[in-house]
Structures are given as structure tokens and as C-alpha cells.
Specification:
- This is Conserved hypothetical Ustilaginaceae-specific protein.
- It comes from Sporisorium reilianum (strain SRZ2).
- Keywords: Signal.
- This protein has 160 residues and is mainly α.
- It folds into 2 domains: 38 residues; 109 residues.
- Helix content is 66%, strand content 2%.
- It has 7 helices and 2 strands, in the order αααββαααα.
- The protein has a two-stranded antiparallel ribbon.
- β1 and β2 form a beta hairpin.
- α3 packs antiparallel against α4 and α4 crosses α7.
- The longest helix is centred in the C-terminal third of the chain and has 31 residues.
- The radius of gyration is 28 Å and the shape is elongated.
Length: 160
């Protein structure tokens, strides 16, 4: 049986139009606007994150770099650690301005001191055991503060 070209085209147009009508009717039955696109239904618009979070988010889900291997400083990891501290300092200063969205405990956590001035001066090439011991103490303090502040900033970024 041989079908004419016009019959095949008409059949395709009919199938296409019935799919559009059925899709539109399905949207109406779900309470959606028939003119909205399918991508809006499947992928609702994403609320943009605050700018301070965008700059810090690349660090937020990573482990804190381990700077020390015994008495040896890994200079590469030290650079990553310093970059994370600087970014965290920037993010928390912006987050603290949003006081109405923070609990008193979160404000207290974000207000904990970071040893930024120390790390800005520390080169990682020091050989004096006292300097390395002091760096180890500052590292432990900042590492625990980073973990606490990360939780607060992540919650705040999700909320905003």
C-alpha cells in the first residue's frame, strides 16, 4: 500500500497538534498555566546566591588543608589555607551585616577571631621550633573556627 506524501504530512501534523493539545490539557489539569514552558515546570528558577557566598563556596565543601607534616610546612597547602582564611573573613564580614537572619549563637560563632595577621606574615620557611609551634597552635584554632563558620555560612546561603 502506497501512501501519498500529502497524506503522510497531514498525519504528522495531526499527531503533532494532538500532542500539543494533550500536553496543554495535562498542564491545565495540574493547575499550571498552559503557556508556561515545560522547562519551567521541570526546572524551577533558581534563586541567585549572595555574592559573598559565590566567592567562598569553592572552599566551603572542601576539607581544611593540612599545612603541617610533622615539623615541615607544605607551602602549597599553606597558600590554600591562607586563601581560604581570606575568603572566609570576607564572607563572614558580609554575613554579620545580615544580623536579622542569624541567631545569637551564629553571630557568636562568626565573630570568633581568626589569626589572619599572623598568617599574612607567616612564610612557611621558618626553621625556628618556637615559630613552628606557634604556627601549629594558630592552625588548630583557625581550623576549628573554619569548620564552625562553614556550617553557619552554608545555612545562611541556603536561607537567603
Amino acid at each position: 500500500m502506497r501512501l501519498s506524501a500529502s497524506f503522510v504530512v497531514a498525519l504528522m501534523l495531526f499527531t503533532l497538534s494532538s500532542n500539543v493539545v494533550a500536553h496543554s490539557a495535562m498542564k491545565k489539569s495540574r493547575g499550571m498555566d498552559a503557556s508556561s514552558s515545560e522547562s519551567e515546570v521541570l526546572n524551577p528558577p533558581v534563586k541567585p546566591k549572595p555574592l559573598w557566598w559565590k566567592s567562598y563556596s569553592r572552599f566551603a565543601y572542601e576539607a581544611v588543608p593540612v599545612v603541617f607534616n610533622g615539623n615541615i610546612v607544605n607551602v602549597e597547602k599553606l597558600g590554600m589555607f591562607k586563601a581560604r582564611l581570606e575568603s572566609l573573613h570576607h564572607a563572614r564580614s558580609h554575613a554579620l551585616r545580615l544580623g536579622t537572619f542569624l541567631t545569637p549563637d551564629e553571630v557568636k560563632d562568626l565573630s570568633k577571631p581568626l589569626n589572619l595577621d599572623y598568617w599574612r606574615k607567616f612564610k612557611g620557611t621558618e626553621e625556628n621550633p618556637h615559630d613552628l609551634f606557634l604556627a601549629g597552635i594558630h592552625y588548630q584554632q583557625d581550623q576549628s573556627n573554619i569548620l564552625v563558620m562553614d556550617l553557619v555560612l552554608r545555612r545562611l546561603a541556603e536561607y537567603l
